[in-house]
Design a protein that fits this description.
- With 80 residues, this protein is α+β, with helices and mostly antiparallel strands.
- The chain has one domain.
- Helix content is 44%, strand content 26%.
- The chain contains three helices and three strands, in the order βββααα.
- The chain has helices spanning 40-50, 54-65, 68-79, and strands spanning 7-12, 21-27, 30-37.
- A three-stranded antiparallel sheet has the order 1-2-3, covered by helices on one side.
- The longest helix has 12 residues, at 54-65.
- The protein starts with 6 loop residues before the first strand and ends with a helix.
- The relative contact order is 0.18.
Length: 80
Protein backbone atom coordinates (compact mmCIF):
# COMPACT_ATOMS: atom_id res chain seq x y z
CA UNK A 1 0.00 0.00 0.00
CA UNK A 2 1.28 3.46 -0.89
CA UNK A 3 1.66 5.58 2.24
CA UNK A 4 3.24 9.01 1.86
CA UNK A 5 3.51 10.33 -1.67
CA UNK A 6 5.46 13.29 -2.95
CA UNK A 7 4.31 13.85 -6.54
CA UNK A 8 4.82 16.71 -8.95
CA UNK A 9 3.05 17.07 -12.29
CA UNK A 10 4.40 19.68 -14.72
CA UNK A 11 3.68 20.67 -18.32
CA UNK A 12 6.88 22.24 -19.62
CA UNK A 13 6.78 24.88 -22.35
CA UNK A 14 8.57 24.01 -25.59
CA UNK A 15 12.17 25.27 -25.54
CA UNK A 16 11.72 26.64 -29.05
CA UNK A 17 9.20 26.84 -31.88
CA UNK A 18 8.40 23.53 -33.53
CA UNK A 19 8.99 21.42 -30.41
CA UNK A 20 6.18 19.98 -28.25
CA UNK A 21 5.17 20.72 -24.70
CA UNK A 22 6.26 17.98 -22.27
CA UNK A 23 3.82 16.60 -19.70
CA UNK A 24 6.00 15.16 -16.93
CA UNK A 25 5.18 13.35 -13.71
CA UNK A 26 7.70 12.95 -10.88
CA UNK A 27 7.12 11.01 -7.66
CA UNK A 28 9.34 9.66 -4.92
CA UNK A 29 12.39 11.09 -6.69
CA UNK A 30 11.67 9.30 -9.98
CA UNK A 31 10.38 10.52 -13.31
CA UNK A 32 7.38 8.28 -13.90
CA UNK A 33 6.14 9.69 -17.18
CA UNK A 34 7.14 12.17 -19.82
CA UNK A 35 4.86 12.61 -22.81
CA UNK A 36 5.15 15.10 -25.69
CA UNK A 37 1.83 16.94 -26.12
CA UNK A 38 0.54 19.67 -28.40
CA UNK A 39 -0.87 21.98 -25.70
CA UNK A 40 -0.98 22.70 -21.99
CA UNK A 41 -4.58 21.46 -21.87
CA UNK A 42 -3.60 18.16 -23.50
CA UNK A 43 -0.70 17.82 -21.07
CA UNK A 44 -2.91 18.46 -18.05
CA UNK A 45 -5.44 15.89 -19.28
CA UNK A 46 -2.65 13.32 -19.74
CA UNK A 47 -1.30 13.94 -16.25
CA UNK A 48 -4.77 13.75 -14.68
CA UNK A 49 -5.25 10.36 -16.34
CA UNK A 50 -2.17 9.04 -14.50
CA UNK A 51 -3.19 9.98 -10.97
CA UNK A 52 -5.60 7.06 -10.37
CA UNK A 53 -2.72 4.67 -11.23
CA UNK A 54 -0.10 6.48 -9.17
CA UNK A 55 -0.31 4.54 -5.86
CA UNK A 56 0.30 1.22 -7.65
CA UNK A 57 3.19 2.65 -9.67
CA UNK A 58 4.81 4.06 -6.52
CA UNK A 59 4.43 0.72 -4.74
CA UNK A 60 6.20 -0.98 -7.67
CA UNK A 61 9.06 1.53 -7.54
CA UNK A 62 9.45 1.14 -3.78
CA UNK A 63 9.40 -2.66 -4.06
CA UNK A 64 12.00 -2.56 -6.83
CA UNK A 65 14.20 -0.23 -4.76
CA UNK A 66 14.35 -2.89 -2.04
CA UNK A 67 15.20 -5.68 -4.50
CA UNK A 68 18.98 -5.86 -5.18
CA UNK A 69 18.38 -7.84 -8.40
CA UNK A 70 16.29 -5.04 -9.88
CA UNK A 71 18.82 -2.40 -8.82
CA UNK A 72 21.68 -4.38 -10.37
CA UNK A 73 19.77 -4.83 -13.62
CA UNK A 74 18.92 -1.12 -13.77
CA UNK A 75 22.56 -0.20 -13.20
CA UNK A 76 23.70 -2.54 -15.95
CA UNK A 77 21.19 -1.04 -18.39
CA UNK A 78 22.44 2.49 -17.68
CA UNK A 79 26.07 1.49 -18.18
CA UNK A 80 25.44 -0.33 -21.44
Amino acid sequence: MCSMLDALAIVYDPPRAGLPYLATLFADGHMLACEPVSSIDEGEAFLKSLFPKLPGIIDQIRSAANNPNVIAAASQNRAG
